[in-house]
Automatic annotation (TrEMBL):
GO terms for biological process: proteolysis. The gene is LOC408536. This is Angiotensin-converting enzyme. Keywords: Carboxypeptidase, Disulfide bond, Glycoprotein, Hydrolase, Metal-binding, Metalloprotease, Protease, Signal, Zinc. Belongs to the peptidase M2 family. Chloride binds at residues 236, 533. Binds 1 zinc ion per subunit.
Amino acid sequence: MQRVIYGNNMTPSWILLFPSLFSLVHGQLDIPSLNENSRGNFGRRLPPTEGELQDILARLDFLGTERCSANVAAQWSYETDVNEYTQIQALEAQRIYADFQNQAWFLISRIDKNNIRDPVIGRRLRYLSVVGPSALPPDQLDRYNRVINDMLAVYNEATICAYNDPFRCGLRLYPDISQIMAKSRNWDELQYVWTEWRRRSGMRIKDLYQQLVTLNNEAAKLNNFTDAAEYWMFPYESPNLQQDIDEVWEMIRPLYEELHAYIRRKLRDLYGPEKIGSHSLLPAHILGNIWAQSWTNIIDITIPYPGKNNLDVTQEMQAQGYTPIEMFRIAEEFYLSLNLSAMPPEFWAGSIIVDPGDRSLICQASAWDFCNRLDYRIKMCTKVTMKDLITVHHEMAHIEYFLRYSGLTREFRDGANPGFHEAVGEAVALSVATPRHLQTLSLGNKYIDEFTTDINYLFTLAMDKLVMLPFSIVMDRWRWDVFRGYVTREDYNCHWHRLMEQYAGIKPPVLRSEDDFDPGAKYHIPANIPYIRNFVAGVLQFQLYRALCQAAGQRSVDDFRRPLHRCDFYRSPEAGRILGIMD
């Protein structure tokens, strides 16, 4: 590894003051232990100058880039060729990278940051001072990982038996349970499946989750946060994030309530007034999704204008002989039309565009930044469908974003907040999915521009994007309240349904108790993955879309002939300029 050579053979003062930092930034990652006496001496040392901090940060950036790149490469190898060997390699690379981050945190956290005047240095140190669960002592970190793995094992292995057929068992969440919730209109069957999934998943991890809450809060305190709620909110850089979220939701709520009332009427007509009252909450099990987070699967029984033009152009794509690689080239041309970047050669050489069929891989579409400012890829088992055409554009938006901030230091090579990356991708997807853009691609010629088509299109959007918002709030509002100690184990389930009623107007189909743990029936709870980013992205995507459409000259608040939902900013260099400066 390259060593730093200093002029005049002089040893910089910060090396004398911070020998542990010297060993770290020269690639020697074995940090000497600090006994109580040495910790006291360390605290009395003079802080490094800002120039010396620049040297430290430059070296950390170099080492961090190396280790991050090695880690991402190992994760890519595993996800594109799932076997025991690649899994072991991925876990080892993850451990090495986590160790590096932890050691950097251990040292950076002991630097006095109060007198740093350079805002960039201060911000970089602030990011490096937060390392998350890796701050836990080894035994607690091991327990933290084991608790999550144990909960996920329960979740991933959960199965149920079929309704009215106790001998047909082993039904999994995907594809079995999700298909039943999407296709069945049998009230009793849906109620049974809804209840059984929660009995086989969430109910079994309640005790483990209580342990995770304790470990999350302990990790947060070691990172100098009051609790895990404050730690989870940290990336948004808002002192009042919960209040901000609620204020935004209150502006959106009237539209949601109108959709809620419309769906209630449609479902009341289908299932009868004895099951759904004229002013009642919506039963969670009849909304087409096991968590009621999206209602798109009941569009067939609720769409305002049945039989009117459908905007799904999958059949037309297949009739025209579209291929996955052509879909990627079309997406690239979309960004080129905005004067943004072409995909680099490494992208085309390294990306997986279709399932190779000769090995097991994780087909979840994803965009990858290999941390080296050179290698960017997409992994996707692309099918010739309209949904996948939109997904390709979405994932390529991530690559464009990676390319835009590639020149920044490692701490800043990320989205502006955890929801921003998704918002950019979804703003592009909104443009691509419009009838106007589909007609530009010669895919929408037979779709008529009329009022009923517009209403059906907007309704379809709302059944996905609008409905997701209250669920996204509940997912993290519930956890924030638990982390803060506002809710005890004895009230976990009741508080969950209280929030679902408050924000979403949804109730469980059967009586629940504190023996149940319904939050745990959603993957992100046992996986310990924050969810409020989905709310942020869900709102921000429309704000970005509006700004890009205004830049493209296709949106005017004073001209009803140019409504936002008909905007396609394809071939607008000005929209591309706006998109390009958001790094």
